[in-house]
Structure to design on (1155 residues):
C-alpha cells in the first residue's frame, strides 16, 4: 500500500513529519518497507519549445526539430510526430531518461543518418493517456522553458506492507485512523455531502436468491449527461503516485476512492446495459471478455453481474469490456457493492485473476462504506465531468455481521505480561471504532464494520498491545532447566555420523530435495517417481529417491571447472512415496579423481573401491557398530559397477542393509558426461543403524592385562577363485576365537605358476594367549589346525 | 709377581692406537680371548701360593676393570662417531610437502543448526522433527489458516497431487501440531528442518531451512517469549548486548504476532549485528492462537504459550558474512571449503559456540 503524507493529511490532522509517521506505523504493525523518494527519472522531463522543424532528408515521415529546452543552445531531435511544428510547446526527454511506457533508456542515436539528442514525448509514452497520435501540446509560455513537466512527483511516498488481516488499512483513511488511535494526530471527519438528486436510479437491480450467492449488497447510482475526459492533473498525479495508469476521469475516480477509503467501485456505460442488472450465479460455460482484454470461460456458481444479454462482469473481481466506459460515454452507472470474501477468492483462484478489487474483497470490505463510496464518487464525477445524478439504489442485505466479544480485563496481563488500566482499554478500543458496553470484570465489545478480523477476545488483546506498544512487554529471562534430553538417539546418530563422514575428508553439500527425474531414475528402484505438480523447472521435477542424483550434478559442475579431485557428501532425506513420513534418512558420499596427484613422495594413484569401503567401514565403526558384526558381500544395486561394489550388512549377509559401497556404473558416468575415469560412492542407511541399548559404561567389561607375548605366523594357500577373502578370514577366525586375535590378508596373487581358476592367498594370523606363553608345540598345533581346516573346507593346498 | 702397571700401559696404548671398529674386536680377543693376555694372567692364579694369591687376584681384577672400561669407552666413541657420520649424510629438506591427507568440511547450515540447538538446549528445549511432505491440514488448516484464507498467498506451495492435499511443507510450523498431538503438555521444543516454497530469485531459494520453536505451559506469557528470543539472539551472535525490536505483525497461527528486528551497522564493509541504527528482520513469533491449541487437543483455557520461526540460512548469512543464498545449495567445492567448518568444531556450551 502506497501513500504520501499529504494524502494522509486529508484524513489526519497531525504535525508529525514523514519520518515520525513511518516510525509510528511500523510500531503499530503497519510496517513501512521504504520511504520512496520521488521518481527522479520523472524530473528529467522538461517543458520545451520547437523553434524550427524541417523534413528529414532521408525519411518522409520524420522531422528534424531544433528545440529550445531553456538552455543556451538548441538541441537537435529527430521526431516522427505529425504535430511537431514551429512554435509548439511540448515535453522533452534528454538522453539517459527512462521512458515510462516502454521502460527503455534513451540514448543519443543516429536516425537515418542524423543524430538525435533525446526525444519529444507523447502522452502515451509518458503513460499518461492512450493518445498515440502525436506529441503532447502544452499551453505554456517562454517562462516555463526548461522547467520540470511533472510537478507533483516531488513528494515522498510511504510503501507500507499491510498484513492480510487488515483490509481496512488498504485505504488511506484506515491508516489515518490507526495513527490517530496511537496518538499521532486526530482523525478528520468526512465532510457531509449534499447533492440534489431528483430522479430514481432507472436501471433495475436484483440479487438472485441462490445458494452461495457471492453478493450481499449492491448499491448503485445513475449519472446522466456526463462528459468523460482525461482527469485533471491533481488526480492524474495521485493515480500515478499509486503506481497506476490514468485512464479517464471516471475510471480514475473509482480508483481514487478505492485507495482513499478501501472502497472498490465499478463504473458501467449505462447505455450498454441491456435493460436491468441481475446479480446471479454463473452457469457453466458462460463467457465474457473482461477489461484486461482476456476472454474468461466461467464455471457454475461464480458471482456474475449480468444483464439481459449475458455476463457484464465478475462481481468484485473484474468488469467486462462490453459495458466499459469510454471518452464518448454519456450516461454511467456507478456500482458500490459487498461481495463475500470466500466466494471472491474461489472464483479468482479458479480463473487465475488478480486485481486490486479482488485483493480487497477477499480480505473483507466494510459493508457500511457502500453509501459513502457512491456519494463521494458521484460528487467527484459531477465536479469533473458534469451531469446529473440519480438517487442511490441499495439492494440486498448481509448474511453475517460482526458479533459482540466478551473481554475479561485480566486476560490482557495473563497473556501479555504487563497490565493496562480499564480506562486505557476503553480509550484504545473506542478510538479504533469499537462500540463498548462496560461491566465490572468484563467489557462487551462490538467491533467496527471495517474490522472483519476482530472475532475473539485474543484479537482485542492484540489490538491493545499493538497500540500500547510492544516495547512495554517485559523481558523475562529464560529458566535453565531441562525437562527432556535435547536430542534423542536418532538425532544424536545424525549429528555424529555427519561429522564422522566429514572427518574422512568429505565436504558436506546441502542440495535441494528435488532433482531431475532423468538423473534420479538412474539411481532409483521406485516404480513411480514422486512428481511435483508445479515444479519450479522441468529439471527439478521430482523428489529425490537417492542422494546420488544431486551429488552427481554437483560433482559434474565442479569437474567441468577442472576440480576433478573431489570428495562430497550429503546427509538428509530421500523419498519413497508421496505421503508424509515416506522418507528415510541417508548419507551419500562420492569421491573421484586421484588419491595423490603428481606427488614427490607417493605413487600417483586414483581412488579405488577399497578407499570408499574403508570410509564406509570406519564411519560405521565410529557410529558404534562393532566391526565383528558387519558382513561384507558382493550384493549390489544397478547403479554400481557389478564387479566392483558390495554391501555391508548387519550380522549376516542377509541382515539389515547398513551401506552399499563401490564404483558407480561406468555407463552412468558416461551418460552424465562426468569426464572422469571413475566415481566411487557409498550410501549409508541411517534408519537401519540400530539404537545401542546400552550406554558405553554399561557395555564394557573389565580390561584384563596379559603379560604373555603375542605371536604371529604366515600362511599361504592356493585356493579356488570362488572363495572370497572374507570367507577365508571368518573361517580361520572361528577356529579359536579366544586365541586368534586377527587374520590379515597380505597378498593375493593370480597368474604365473597358479592354475587357472585359482588364486594364491597369503595371510598372517595373530595369536594372543591369555593364560600362558605359547610354546613352539602349541604354535605348531594351532597352525596345523588352521591348515587342516582351510584345506578340508575349501580344497585349498598349502603353497610351499 | 707380574708388573701389572706395565701390562696395563701396554694394553691401553694398544687400544688407544686402534683406528677402526674391526681391529678393536681383534684386540678384544687378544686381551680377553681364550689365549688372551688377561685370560692367561687369570690362569696363573691357581699356580700361586696362598700368600701371593690374594694380592695377585686383587690387582688382576682391577686391571681387568680398568681395561674393560677403556675398551667400552673406545667402543662407545666409535659408535658415536659412526652415528655422527651418518647424521651428517641424513639431512633432508623439511620444507617439502608431506603425504596426502584429506580434510572435509561441515556445511554452514549444518553448523548453524548445531549452534542453535546448543543454545536452546541450555534453556531447556529439546529437538523435534517432522516430515518434509505434509498434508494440507497440518501445513495450513490446523494452523488456523483455512482454505481461501489470503494468508495462504504468502506461501507459494509445491504440491504433489492435483487435489492439493499433499504438499512440501512451506514452514516448520506443522511440527508444532505433530508434537502436541503426540505428547501431553508442557511442551518446550525446537524443530529445525528443510522448508519449501516455489519461488526462486536472488534472495529466494525454492528450498531453505527454518527453525520452529514452541513453548506451552501454564502461565507462559509474551514476556517469556521476549526473554527467550533475546537470550537466543545474544548467544547466537556472541555479543554482550543486542539492540532488538518487537514489531506487531500477523500470522494466522499466533496472536498477538510479532516480527523481530535486530539492529546492525556496516563497519569496514562488514555487517556488525547488535548495534547501529539500521534494522534487520530476523524472525517471526507470537502467542500460539487458541484455535491452534484446540486443533492440537490442548485446552487453551489451561495452557498457553509462544511459538517462533527463524530462517536458518539467513542467520548463517548474517553471522558468517555470506551474501548469496542460492550458493548454499550449489555444491561448488570452492564455496563449501571457504564457508565450511572443520568437523571437530562441534558447537557446545562449555567450549563455546564457535572458534
Amino acid at each position: 500500500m502506497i501513500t504520501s503524507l499529504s494524502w494522509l493529511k486529508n484524513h489526519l490532522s497531525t504535525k508529525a513529519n514523514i519520518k515520525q509517521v513511518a516510525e509510528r506505523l511500523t510500531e503499530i504493525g503497519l510496517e513501512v518497507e521504504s520511504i520512496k523518494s520521488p521518481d527522479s527519472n520523472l524530473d528529467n522531463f522538461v517543458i520545451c519549445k520547437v523553434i524550427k522543424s524541417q523534413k528529414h532528408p532521408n525519411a518522409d515521415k520524420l522531422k528534424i526539430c531544433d528545440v529550445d529546452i531553456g538552455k543556451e543552445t538548441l538541441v537537435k531531435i529527430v521526431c516522427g510526430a505529425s504535430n511537431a511544428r514551429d512554435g509548439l510547446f511540448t515535453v522533452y526527454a534528454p538522453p539517459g531518461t527512462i521512458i515510462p511506457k516502454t521502460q527503455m533508456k534513451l540514448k543519443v542515436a543516429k536516425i537515418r543518418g542524423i543524430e538525435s539528442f533525446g526525444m519529444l514525448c507523447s502522452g502515451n509514452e509518458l503513460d499518461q493517456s492512450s493518445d498515440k497520435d502525436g506529441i503532447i501540446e502544452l499551453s505554456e509560455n517562454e517562462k516555463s522553458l526548461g522547467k520540470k513537466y511533472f510537478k507533483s512527483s516531488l513528494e515522498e511516498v510511504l510503501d507500507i506492507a499491510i498484513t492480510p488481516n487488515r483490509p481496512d488499512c488498504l485505504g488511506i483513511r484506515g491508516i489515518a485512523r490507526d495513527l490517530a488511535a496511537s496518538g499521532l494526530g486526530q482523525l478528520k471527519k468526512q465532510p457531509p455531502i449534499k447533492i440534489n438528486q431528483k430522479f430514481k436510479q432507472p436501471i433495475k437491480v436484483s440479487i438472485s436468491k441462490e445458494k452461495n450467492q457471492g453478493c450481499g449488497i449492491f448499491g448503485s447510482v445513475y449519472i446522466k449527461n456526463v462528459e468523460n475526459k482525461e482527469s485533471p492533473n491533481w488526480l492524474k498525479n495521485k493515480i500515478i503516485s499509486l503506481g497506476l495508469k490514468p485512464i479517464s476521469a471516471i475510471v480514475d475516480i473509482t480508483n481514487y476512492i478505492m485507495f482513499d477509503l478501501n472502497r472498490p467501485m465499478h463504473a458501467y456505460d449505462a447505455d450498454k446495459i441491456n435493460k436491468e442488472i441481475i446479480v446471479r450465479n454463473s452457469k457453466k460455460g458462460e463467457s465474457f471478455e473482461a477489461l484486461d482484454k482476456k476472454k474468461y470461460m466461467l464455471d457454475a456458481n461464480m458471482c456474475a453481474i449480468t444483464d439481459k444479454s449475458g455476463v457484464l462482469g465478475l462481481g468484485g473481481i473484474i468488469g467486462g469490456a462490453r459495458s466499459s466506459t469510454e471518452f464518448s460515454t454519456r450516461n454511467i452507472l456507478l456500482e458500490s457493492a459487498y461481495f463475500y470474501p470466500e466466494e471472491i477468492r474461489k472464483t479468482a483462484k479458479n480463473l487465475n485473476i488478480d486485481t486490486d478489487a479482488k485483493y480487497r474483497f477477499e480480505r473483507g470490505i466494510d459493508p457500511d462504506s457502500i453509501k459513502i463510496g457512491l456519494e463521494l464518487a458521484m460528487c467527484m464525477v459531477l465536479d469533473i465531468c458534469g451531469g446529473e445524478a440519480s438517487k442511490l439504489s441499495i439492494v440486498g442485505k448481509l448474511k453475517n455481521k460482526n458479533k459482540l466479544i466478551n473481554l475479561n480485563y485480566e486476560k490482557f496481563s495473563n497473556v501479555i505480561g504487563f497490565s493496562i488500566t480499564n480506562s486505557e482499554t476503553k480509550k484504545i478500543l473506542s478510538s479504533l471504532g469499537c462500540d463498548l458496553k462496560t461491566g465490572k470484570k468484563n467489557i462487551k465489545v462490538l467491533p467496527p464494520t471495517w474490522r472483519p478480523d476482530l472475532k475473539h477476545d485474543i484479537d482485542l488483546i492484540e489490538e491493545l498491545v499493538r497500540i500500547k506498544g510492544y516495547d512495554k512487554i517485559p523481558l523475562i529471562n529464560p529458566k535453565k532447566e531441562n525437562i527432556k534430553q535435547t536430542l534423542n538417539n536418532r538425532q544424536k546418530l545424525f549429528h555424529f555420523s555427519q561429522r564422522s563422514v566429514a572427518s574422512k575428508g568429505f565436504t558436506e553439500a546441502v542440495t535441494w530435495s528435488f532433482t531431475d527425474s532423468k538423473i534420479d531414475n538412474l539411481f532409483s528402484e521406485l516404480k513411480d517417481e514422486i512428481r511435483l505438480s508445479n515444479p519450479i523447472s522441468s529439471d527439478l521435477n521430482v523428489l529425490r529417491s537417492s542422494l546420488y542424483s544431486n551429488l552427481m550434478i554437483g560433482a559434474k559442475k565442479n569437474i567441468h571447472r577442472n576440480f576433478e579431485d573431489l570428495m562430497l557428501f550429503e546427509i538428509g532425506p530421500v523419498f519413497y512415496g508421496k505421503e508424509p513420513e515416506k522418507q528415510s534418512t541417508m548419507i551419500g558420499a562420492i569421491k573421484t579423481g586421484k588419491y595423490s596427484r603428481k606427488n614427490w613422495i607417493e605413487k600417483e594413484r586414483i581412488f579405488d573401491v577399497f578407499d570408499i569401503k574403508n570410509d564406509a567401514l570406519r564411519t560405521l565403526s565410529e557410529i558404534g557398530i562393532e566391526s565383528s558384526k558387519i558382513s561384507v558381500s558382493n550384493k549390489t544395486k544397478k547403479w554400481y559397477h557389478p564387479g566392483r561394489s558390495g554391501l555391508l550388512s548387519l550380522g549376516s549377509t542377509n541382515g539389515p542393509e547398513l551401506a552399499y559401497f563401490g564404483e558407480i556404473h561406468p555407463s552412468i558416468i558416461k551418460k552424465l558426461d562426468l569426464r572422469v575415469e571413475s566415481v566411487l560412492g557409498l550410501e549409508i542407511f541411517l534408519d537401519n543403524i540400530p539404537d545401542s541399548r546400552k550406554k558405553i559404561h554399561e557395555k564394557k567389561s573389565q580390561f584384563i592385562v596379559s603379560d604373555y607375548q603375542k605371536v604371529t605366523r604366515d600362511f599361504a594357500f592356493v585356493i579356488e577363485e570362488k572363495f572370497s577373502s572374507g570367507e577365508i578370514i571368518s573361517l580361520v577366525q572361528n577356529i579359536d576365537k579366544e586365541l586368534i586375535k586377527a587374520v590379515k590378508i597380505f597378498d593375493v596373487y593370480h597368474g604365473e605358476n597358479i592354475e587357472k581358476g585359482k588364486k594364491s592367498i597369503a595371510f598372517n594370523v595373530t595369536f594372543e594367549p591369555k593364560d600362558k606363553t605359547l610354546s613352539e608345540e602349541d604354535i605348531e598345533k594351532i597352525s596345523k589346525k588352521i591348515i587342516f581346516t582351510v584345506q578340508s573346507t575349501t580344497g585349498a593346498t598349502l603353497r610351499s | 709377581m707380574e708388573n701389572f702397571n706395565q701390562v696395563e700401559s701396554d694394553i691401553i696404548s694398544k687400544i688407544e692406537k686402534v683406528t677402526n671398529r674391526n681391529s678393536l674386536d681383534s684386540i678384544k680377543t687378544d686381551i680377553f680371548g681364550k689365549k688372551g693376555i688377561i685370560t692367561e694372567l687369570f690362569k696363573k692364579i691357581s699356580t700361586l701360593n696362598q700368600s701371593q694369591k690374594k694380592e695377585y687376584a686383587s690387582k688382576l681384577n682391577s686391571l681387568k676393570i680398568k681395561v674393560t672400561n677403556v675398551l667400552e669407552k673406545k667402543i662407545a666413541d666409535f659408535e658415536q662417531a659412526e652415528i655422527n657420520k651418518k647424521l651428517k649424510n641424513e639431512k633432508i629438506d623439511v620444507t617439502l610437502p608431506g603425504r596426502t591427507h584429506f580434510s572435509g568440511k561441515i556445511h554452514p547450515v549444518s553448523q548453524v543448526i548445531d549452534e542453535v540447538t546448543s543454545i536452546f538446549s541450555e534453556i531447556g528445549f529439546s529437538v523435534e522433527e517432522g516430515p518434509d511432505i505434509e498434508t494440507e491440514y497440518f501445513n495450513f488448516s490446523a494452523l488456523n489458516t483455512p482454505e481461501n484464507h489470503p494468508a495462504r498467498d504468502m506461501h507459494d506451495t509445491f504440491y504433489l497431487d492435483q487435489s492439493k492435499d499433499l504438499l512440501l511443507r512451506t514452514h516448520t510450523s506443522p511440527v508444532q501440531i505433530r508434537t502436541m498431538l503426540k505428547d501431553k503438555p508442557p511442551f518446550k521444543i525446537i524443530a529445525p528442518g528443510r522448508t519449501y516454497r516455489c519461488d526462486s530469485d536472488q534472495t529466494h531459494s525454492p528450498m531453505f531451512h527454518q527453525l520452529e520453536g514452541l513453548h506451552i505451559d501454564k502461565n507462559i506469557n509474551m514476556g517469556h517469549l521476549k526473554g527467550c528470543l533475546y537470550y537466543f539472539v545474544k548467544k547466537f551472535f556472541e555479543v554482550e548486548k543486542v539492540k532488538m525490536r518487537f514489531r506487531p505483525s500477523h500470522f494466522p497461527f499466533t496472536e498477538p504476532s510479532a516480527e523481530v528486528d535486530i539492529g546492525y551497522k556496516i563497519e569496514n564493509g562488514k555487517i556488525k549485528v547488535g548495534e547501529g541504527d539500521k534494522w534487520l528482520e530476523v524472525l517471526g513469533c507470537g502467542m500460539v492462537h487458541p484455535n491452534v491449541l484446540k486443533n492440537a487437543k490442548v485446552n487453551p483455557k489451561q495452557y498457553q504459550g509462544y511459538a517462533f520461526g527463524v530462517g536458518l540460512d539467513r542467520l548463517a548469512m548474517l553471522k558468517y558474512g555470506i551474501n548469496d543464498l542460492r550458493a548454499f545449495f550449489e555444491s561448488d567445492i570452492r564455496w563449501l571449503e571457504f564457508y565450511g567448518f572443520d568437523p571437530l568444531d562441534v558447537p557446545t556450551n562449555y567450549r563455546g559456540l564457535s572458534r
Observations:
- Chain B has a mean pLDDT of 92.
